[in-house]
Design a protein that fits this description.
The chain has 123 residues and is mostly helical. It is built from 6 helices and no strands. It has helices at 2-22, 31-37, 65-69, 72-75, 79-83, 105-113.
Length: 123
């Protein structure tokens, strides 16, 4: 029952965030996330807002990487990508999980295990 309620809650949050982002006024994201959502919003070619409907995107839980570091928790700082994205002839994110330019399995696993290992494991 708890899993279903979390899913319903996450779905409602995502729906509200998607609606708010598609209309004015916009949702206020912390700076460490807003930099990414400027180009990766609901109506962009590479939207990422669905992450906020998962346990990986819970901003209200200070234990999560997203709350602490934003997108950089999983994708690395990706400073070059933020300055000039790949679609504009620049860089990909430092750590990619999908697509033809995805990072090696070892790098992806290391990134995931930085939160999902040991006594402090997050679920």
């Amino acid at each position: 029952m708890g899993r279903v309620m979390r899913w319903v809650s996450a779905t409602l949050v995502l729906a509200a965030a998607s609606f708010a982002i598609a209309t004015e006024p916009r949702v206020h994201f912390p700076d460490h996330i807003a930099n990414c959502t400027r180009c990766h919003g609901a109506n962009e070619q590479y939207p990422v807002l669905s992450i906020f409907a998962t346990t990986h995107g819970v901003l209200a839980d200070s234990r999560t990487g997203m709350a602490k570091q934003g997108c950089a928790a999983c994708h690395g700082p990706s400073l070059d990508h933020a300055r000039l994205p790949a679609r504009a002839g620049g860089s990909e994110v430092d750590i990619a999980f999908h697509g033809e330019r995805k990072s090696s399995t070892a790098i992806r696993n290391q990134t995931c295990m930085s939160c999902h290992a040991g006594a402090g494991m997050m679920h």
